[in-house]
Structure formats: structure tokens, C-alpha cells
Design a protein that fits this description.
Layout: E1 6-7, H1 8-15, E2 18-20, E3 27-28, E4 31-32, E5 43-45, H2 58-63, E6 68-71, E7 81-83, H3 87-100, E8 106-111, H4 116-127, E9 133-135, H5 145-150, E10 159-163, H6 171-179, E11 183-186, H7 194-197, H8 200-208, E12 219-223, H9 229-236, E13 243-246, E14 248-252, H10 253-256, H11 264-270, E15 275-279, E16 282-289, E17 294-303, E18 306-314, H12 319-333, H13 339-348, E19 357-361, E20 364-368, H14 375-383, E21 391-397, H15 406-418, E22 424-428, H16 432-442, E23 447-450, H17 453-463, E24 468-473, H18 481-494
Parallel strand pairs: 4-5, 5-6, 6-7, 8-10, 8-11, 9-10, 11-12, 12-13, 20-24, 21-22, 21-24, 22-23
Antiparallel strand pairs: 1-3, 2-7, 14-15, 16-17, 17-18, 19-20
Helix pairs in contact: 3-6, 4-12, 4-13, 12-13, 14-15, 15-16
Length: about 500
């Protein structure tokens, strides 16, 4: 794969900075913000955060072989220094410059409160069949991560699938301006980062920013069944008239049916029907949810009386992942990818680690969904257990970043979980105590709260006297994956 060579002149043009200590021109194939990953010839960007300052590690960068550094203040070091006003913004400018070197690159950008990583992998699997595709790694989806991903563009890349996240208004508008998407997709509006935004309305505004940087003739993909669909549609239409909707929703019959256009006989048929199901452009039918996979008919209907469909056997479990697949298919259809290629791409996509990963453990199944959590994704994950024929156990850790709504959201989660056919809920963390209390108000002794992992693990082990399916989930700060590790390792040691 041919890498891009950054010359000292290109770095200067991209950032608008000024060189100091530059005695000779050079070129580099790699720009990094982490001195631990520096290789000989790399360029180091000295970022400054609340609790760190990259300028303090420039000597380390020099010792590890850095060819140059990008700084917002000169340091006493014998190394070429590109002085800029703000290294964080300079990183963004570098990413934008690299994007501009790819005028023929087709970019699919996506955002949403949940499902971004899974959907990203699905889209990437579709487009990798056609040509080399750059796909966001891990959680590199913020104002630092997105430019870093753009810097990984090679000359061979024809497509890029980029995840855009945000914890404040304006962040997606900024990152979208860097990537300039041809297709922009919003998956859903949930409650992730509710504390930072203060309400779902603000979250919807933040996610809708992804449409603001659509290229000419760009396509907006929208979640048809989301309660913020109308708002998202209005925002998208400020920038494009090309819309694709996915999913379905239930609406009052009077809103969906124009009775004046119907015959008396047809009017009579709808007389006793209060609500009707309305489909988006792309929707699913004949859904079959299994413990290890899902099967559904992928249906697209962009014109009246014209329907195309394929049957997809997806390796992803859970009804919410059917919706994610519809979003991925919509993004591909926006670029005229044939249904057969979409079918193959969805079937060959690999579930990311820590997202509903099934692990066999003796005569039990452990489901690892520990990558992260928000109220929407936690409830969706819990619903995966409904079809299991073994004892159903949820092990849940605190949900972070909910701000003033933290207690209320955990209480609501407990109420919602109590309505599901779950046998036991074990919770960990001070906020999850509210979830336990709310669940037990509706179903006595459904949930048990623990102050530490050891006590929870001991109780969980006692519950495994009978065959069980155990799903683990919590925010990253809770590191719920350690429970899976400790559970499986302790058993192996005892043997």
C-alpha cells in the first residue's frame, strides 16, 4: 500500500505555521500524537489537554527518532519545530489537507447515540468488496480521532467509512467539515452523553450537524422510526434533497391514509383500524432472531410498485442490529451498490469485540457487551436475552456521562428491565443501585446490588448452578469485561 509522503513544505501549507530549526527539507510517512508509538522519521504533534502537555515529551520524541515536531510554543530541543497557534486545530488542518489530496475518495460518515461501531463494520464489509476502504479504528471518532483517521488515507483507498461522535454541540459540524461526506447517516437519537448535552433535543441537533458538510449531490440517510425523524429530515433538507429513510414506524391511520381518495369499500376496511405500519425506503421483513445469528428479508422500495429484496443471514444478534443493517444497506444503496453485494457484505461482516460477543463457558453462555453503554443500548442488549431458553441473567455496571439525569435514567432503566422476562439482574456501581431499587419495586427480588466486583462474582457463581445465559454490560469506566475474565479464569484455576 502506497503511503503518503509529508514534505516539510506540505506540513507548512497544511497548518499555516512557521518552521524553526529547519535546516534541510525532509519527508515523513507518519504523523502521531503519541510518543510511545514514534518510529524513526515520524512527525510528532504536541497536543495539550487538561491533564497533559505533549510539549513535555518532545525530548522523548527526539530520542525515539522523530524527524520534526508541531508545537504551539517553541521548546529548547535540537529538532525542527513547526510553530502553530493551536496544535489541536493544526491536527484538524492536517486531516483536511490529506482529505483534499483524495478528490475522488467517496466518504460515508455516520453518527448516532448507539450502534455506530457495529454499523461502521457492516458498511466497511460492503465496500471492501469493491475497493480498498478506510474504516474508523476503535473509538477514533472525535475532533482528534477523525483527523488521525484521515491521516491514514493511502493512495489505494477509494472509500472511507468514518464514525463521527460528539459530547458537545459543534463537534460533529467540525469533523464533518474535515471529512466532507458523500453520504451522511444518523442511526438514532438516544441518551448517550445526556449529561453533556442536557437533553435529547440538543443531542438531535448535534447529530444532525453531520448533514451540514455533505458534498454536492450528497445523500442523507435518516432513521424513519426515530421520534426525532421529522427534525432530522428538516435539518438534512437544508443541505440536500437526496434522502433515504430506513426502518418503520406506526402512525395513526388518519395521518397515513387519505380517505378522500379511497372508495367507500376501502374506507370501510380502514374504519376500525386505529394505527398502520408505515415503511421507510429500506426496511426488513420476515425477521427471525436466533441465539447466534439473525435472518431477515432486506427490502428496498424507492418507487411505488417497485420492490427489490434479498434474504440476509446476519452474524449479528439482537433486533437492534437488524436496524443497524438497514442503515448500512441504505448507505450502500445511496451509492448504487447492488443488493447482492450488500447481502454478501452484511453476511460477511464481523461483530466487533465486546459487542454481544458470545463465549461458551461450561454449559453456560456469556455475552460480552462491555465495550460501552448508554440507556438505549443497555435496554437493546437486554432484549437479546428474551429468546434464550436458559436462565437469563443481566450483569450491569453504571452508565456514565448522564449528568443531572443520571439517577432518573438509571431508575427508568430498572423499570424498563422489570418488564422483560429476565430472571436475575446483578448491578454494580453507585448509580446502578437506583436501577436495582426501581426494578424491585415492580418485581420483588429481581435485582441485587453489589458494592464490589468480588461480591458480585461470588453471587453470580452461585447462580450458575443451573445452565444460564449471562450478559455483561456497562460504561467503559466500569471495566465490566474484567468480570468475564475473572469468572472464566477462576474456574480454570480451580480445575
Amino acid at each position: 500500500m502506497r503511503l503518503y509522503h509529508w514534505t516539510s513544505q506540505a506540513l507548512l501549507i497544511a497548518t499555516g505555521g512557521a518552521w524553526h530549526n529547519l535546516t534541510t527539507d525532509f519527508s515523513s510517512t507518519h504523523i502521531t500524537t503519541d510518543t510511545r508509538k514514534i518510529k524513526v522519521g515520524d512527525v510528532f504533534v504536541a497536543l495539550k489537554g487538561d491533564n497533559f502537555d505533549g510539549h513535555d515529551f518532545i525530548e522523548t520524541a527526539l530520542k525515539n527518532g522523530a524527524a520534526a515536531v508541531i508545537v504551539n510554543r517553541l521548546v529548547n530541543a535540537d529538532i525542527p519545530q513547526l510553530l502553530v497557534d493551536d496544535t489541536r486545530l493544526a491536527l484538524g488542518k492536517l486531516g483536511k489537507y490529506r482529505r483534499d489530496q483524495h478528490p475522488d475518495l467517496t466518504v460515508i460518515a455516520l453518527t448516532g447515540s448507539s450502534g455506530k461501531t457495529t454499523t461502521k463494520e457492516m458498511i466497511g464489509s460492503i465496500f471492501n468488496q469493491i475497493a480498498p476502504t478506510l474504516i474508523t479504528k476503535g473509538n477514533l471518532n472525535n475532533d482528534l480521532g477523525v483527523p488521525m483517521m484521515l491521516l491514514e488515507l493511502s493512495d489505494e483507498h477509494k472509500f472511507a467509512v468514518l464514525e463521527l461522535g460528539a459530547n458537545h454541540l459543534g463537534e460533529i459540524a467540525y469533523t464533518a467539515s474535515l471529512v466532507r461526506p458523500d453520504v451522511a447517516c444518523v442511526l438514532n437519537i438516544g441518551t448517550a452523553h445526556l449529561g453533556e448535552f442536557g437533553g435529547q433535543e440538543s443531542i438531535a441537533k448535534a447529530k444532525a450537524e453531520i448533514y451540514s458538510a455533505l458534498t454536492k449531490d450528497g445523500v442523507a440517510v435518516l432513521p424513519f422510526g426515530d421520534k426525532f425523524f421529522e427534525f432530522l429530515s428538516q435539518e438534512a433538507q437544508k443541505f440536500t434533497s437526496n434522502l433515504i429513510t430506513f426502518g418503520e414506524t406506526t402512525v395513526p391511520t388518519a395521518e397515513a391514509v387519505d380517505f378522500d381518495l379511497l372508495s367507500p369499500e376501502a374506507q370501510a376496511e380502514f374504519a376500525d383500524i386505529d394505527n398502520v405500519l408505515v415503511m421507510g425506503d429500506v426496511f426488513s421483513d420476515d425477521v427471525v432472531l436466533n441465539n447466534t445469528h439473525s435472518t431477515f428479508e432486506l427490502v428496498c422500495s424507492f418507487e411505488v410498485d417497485k420492490i427489490d429484496s434479498v434474504v440476509v443471514e446476519s452474524p449479528f444478534i439482537g433486533e437492534h442490529n437488524i436496524t443497524n443493517a438497514l442503515a448500512a444497506a441504505s448507505a450502500a444503496l445511496a451509492l448504487n451498490v447492488p443488493l447482492q453485494l450488500i447481502q454478501t457484505g452484511l453476511q460477511n461482516a464481523c461483530p466487533p469485540k465486546g459487542r454481544l460477543t458470545r463465549i461458551q463457558f461450561d454449559n453456560h453462555w456469556l455475552i460480552d457487551d462491555t465495550y460501552n453503554a448508554n440507556p438505549t443500548s443497555m435496554l437493546a442488549a437486554a432484549q437479546v436475552l428474551i429468546g434464550e431458553d436458559k436462565q437469563k441473567i443481566l450483569v450491569l455496571g453504571d452508565i456514565a456521562e448522564l449528568g443531572d439525569m443520571a439517577v432518573l435514567e438509571h431508575q427508568k432503566l430498572g423499570t424498563d428491565l422489570a418488564e422483560l422476562p429476565i430472571d436475575k439482574i446483578l448491578t454494580l456501581g453507585p448509580l446502578m443501585r437506583h436501577c436495582t431499587d426501581a426494578a424491585n419495586q415492580l418485581r420483588a427480588d429481581l435485582s441485587t446490588h453489589f458494592d464490589n466486583k468480588q461480591a458480585l462474582l461470588s453471587h453470580l457463581t452461585s447462580l450458575l448452578a443451573e445452565p444460564s445465559v449471562v450478559l455483561f454490560k456497562g460504561s467503559r469506566t466500569m471495566r465490566m469485561e474484567t468480570l468475564i475474565h475473572d469468572l472464566t479464569c477462576s474456574t480454570q484455576k480451580s480445575e
